[in-house]
């Protein structure tokens, strides 16, 4: 019976993934069972040789016994290889499942990206590697082997009686010492993690704003920030490593002490209880095998706090998707005619005192061309983001055609609504791949056709491999105008009903802008178009103008009336 709690675990981003790998985990445990049983055979082999074969000069028995132990060793090797493969498989499947969830989380949660430092988010996501390595590698083997410590100590007791107390005391001592030191390791690990996020954030800021920093002579300031974060993280990591090393070294010390203690105690038992020499050697072997997982367990205890912090950070990241978001349903595959209808709209950004956008009523007909004007911060860009699903409304209704925008699946919405932003983003990959982001199913003929209209064909002609030329991240080998032309071509390939453009030609020279606008004007015919701009050439495309100020719609009418010079 699946309880509510069990269902919750299955749906959890991490525990659910682990539960789905339970078959692999069970197989690892079974393999560990055989491996640890095989380890007993080695001890019994040595004991038999010393206590029976050598005293009786039984050479034939030695040959048969040796063949038997060689077979056991071979199967032990196979089981260890199988266990390793099973562990890697579980880790890979967890990587794939959780990795996909992490990508979807970032893709779906603009609020998270806009409110958190990029470096901190990237650092937190990277922590999954720590968590995954802890739960699906050597740690899994340690968990599987540790219960067999009891088995080996029991066999030790059966062979040597009180001699079993020696490894038992060592095992308990190592665990206790590890637990005592945990608070110190936890504190330093947490500090190192925070410092690492700070360091990552500084680095990302420098990379993204290097040109600005150079112009403003701010490189020295950020270098100081970087070195401070490097130094602070180094100190915290050093302290954490010291105490981790202490626990690991103590475990090794315990193993050595156990072997010496068994040998000394064993000699006494040989004289007092009749313990055989073969039995003593077998006890030494079993003791070493019983204490073998201690090294892994001590490392596990040392990493426990780092892993716990990584889990908490990732869990906090996943919790940014509300239950309401996870339950949201959409009406799929909806086509719209291009009408835009807004009623009683209010958009409020977090920590803002006033609405970023407040529109009592706005109607735009299918195929209408509208310019959106206003000062910086007036709400123009917010309107664009709202209509393409990148901003959330607090109140009111937004309809595209007959559909409420919140009922449209993001994929359907962005198929019907094409956006060209002023910050023209070019991604690493070929020129063709960048264009296909607008429509993955576009044919070469469609790409060339759009390329001719936007001037992208000319850009491709200047590149070494044409459309197959690999572009660097952010398209650094291209001019601002070329990047904008590519983004416009990308939008055109999607064949949208609605086109939203925010200063799409701001980086172009006059000739390039004129040529492009003349070419795409026929393409815009019949498509609802919103243009955020103050450029005269773009205004020639529209028949209607709406004006925003401080988030409010203050003017709406024919272009001739709104833009009429004062006094006329």
Topology (SSEs and partners):
Elements: H1 4-11, H2 15-20, H3 22-56, H4 59-108, H5 110-115, H6 118-135, H7 138-145, H8 148-160, H9 165-208, H10 210-215, H11 219-272, H12 277-318, H13 323-327, E1 340-347, E2 357-364, E3 369-374, H14 380-387, E4 395-400, E5 403-404, H15 410-416, E6 417-420, E7 429-430, H16 431-436, H17 444-454, H18 456-462, E8 470-471, H19 480-493, E9 498-502, H20 510-524, E10 528-532, H21 536-539, E11 544-549, E12 552-558, H22 559-562
Parallel strand pairs: 3-10, 3-11, 6-9, 9-10
Antiparallel strand pairs: 1-2, 1-4, 4-5, 7-8, 11-12
Helix pairs in contact: 3-4, 3-7, 3-12, 4-6, 6-9, 6-12, 7-12, 8-12, 9-11, 9-12, 11-12, 17-19
Task: Note the beta-strand portion.
Answer: 5-15%
CATH first level of the largest domain: Mainly Alpha
CATH hierarchy: architecture of the largest domain: Up-down Bundle
What structural class do helix, strand and pairing data support? alpha/beta
Largest sheet: 6 strands, mixed
Within CATH, the superfamily of the largest domain carries the name ABC transporter type 1, transmembrane domain
**What is the domain total for the residues?**
2
Contiguous runs where pLDDT drops below 50 for at least 5 residues: 322-326
Number of helices: 22
Q: Considering DSSP H and I runs of 4 or more, what fraction of the residues is helical?
A: 55-70%
Number of DSSP strands?
Answer: 12
């Amino acid at each position: 019976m699946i309880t509510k709690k069990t269902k919750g675990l299955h749906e959890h981003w991490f525990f659910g993934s682990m539960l789905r790998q339970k078959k692999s985990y069970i197989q690892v445990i079974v393999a560990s069972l055989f491996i640890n049983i095989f380890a007993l055979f080695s001890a019994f082999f040595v004991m038999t040789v010393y206590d029976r074969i050598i005293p009786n000069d039984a050479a034939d028995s030695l040959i048969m016994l040796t063949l038997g132990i060689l077979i056991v060793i071979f199967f032990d090797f196979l089981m260890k290889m199988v266990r390793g493969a099973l562990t890697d498989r579980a880790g890979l499947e967890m990587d794939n499942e959780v990795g996909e969830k992490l990508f979807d989380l970032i893709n779906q949660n603009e609020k998270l990206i806009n409110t958190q430092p990029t470096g901190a988010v990237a650092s937190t996501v990277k922590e999954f590697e720590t968590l995954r390595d802890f739960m699906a590698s050597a740690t899994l083997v340690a968990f599987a082997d540790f219960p067999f410590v009891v088995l080996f100590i029991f066999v030790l007791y059966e062979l040597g009686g009180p001699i079993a107390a020696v490894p038992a005391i060592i095992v308990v001592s190592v665990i206790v010492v590890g637990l005592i030191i945990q608070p110190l390791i936890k504190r330093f690990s947490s500090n190192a993690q925070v410092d690492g996020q700070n360091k990552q954030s500084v680095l990302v800021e420098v990379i993204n704003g290097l040109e600005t920093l150079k112009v403003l002579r701010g490189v020295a300031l950020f270098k100081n920030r970087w070195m401070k974060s490097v130094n602070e993280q180094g100190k915290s990591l050093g302290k954490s490593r010291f105490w981790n090393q202490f626990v690991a070294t103590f475990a090794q010390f315990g193993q050595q002490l156990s072997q010496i203690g068994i040998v000394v105690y064993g000699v006494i038992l040989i004289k007092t209880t009749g313990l055989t020499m073969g039995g003593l050697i077998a006890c030494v072997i079993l003791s070493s095998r019983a204490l073998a997982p201690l090294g892994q367990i001590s490392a596990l205890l040392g990493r426990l706090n780092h892993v716990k912090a990584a889990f908490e950070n990732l869990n906090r990241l996943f919790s940014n998707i509300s239950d309401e978001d996870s339950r949201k349903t959409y009406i799929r595959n909806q086509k719209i005619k291009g009408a835009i209808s807004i009623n009683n709209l209010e958009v409020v950004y977090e920590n803002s005192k006033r609405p970023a956008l407040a529109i009592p009523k706005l109607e735009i007909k299918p195929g209408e061309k509208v310019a959106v004007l206003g000062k910086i911060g007036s709400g123009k860009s917010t309107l664009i983001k709202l209509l393409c699903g990148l901003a959330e409304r607090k109140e009111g209704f937004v309809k595209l055609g007959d559909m409420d925008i919140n009922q449209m699946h993001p994929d359907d919405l962005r198929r019907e609504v094409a956006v060209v932003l002023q910050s023209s983003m070019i991604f690493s990959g070929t020129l063709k791949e960048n264009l296909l982001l607008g429509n993955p199913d576009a044919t070469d003929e469609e790409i060339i056709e759009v390329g001719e209209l936007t001037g992208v064909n000319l850009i491709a002609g200047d590149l070494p491999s044409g459309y197959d030329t690999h572009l660097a991240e952010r398209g650094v080998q291209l001019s601002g105008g070329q990047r904008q032309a590519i983004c416009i071509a990308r939008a055109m390939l999607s064949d949208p009903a609605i086109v939203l453009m925010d200063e799409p030609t701001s980086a172009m020279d006059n000739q390039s802008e004129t040529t492009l606008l003349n070419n795409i004007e026929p393409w815009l015919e019949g498509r609802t178009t919103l243009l955020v701009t103050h450029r005269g050439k773009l205004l020639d495309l529209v028949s209607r103008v709406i004006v925003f100020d401080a988030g409010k719609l203050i003017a709406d009418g024919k272009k001739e009336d709104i833009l009429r010079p004062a006094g006329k």
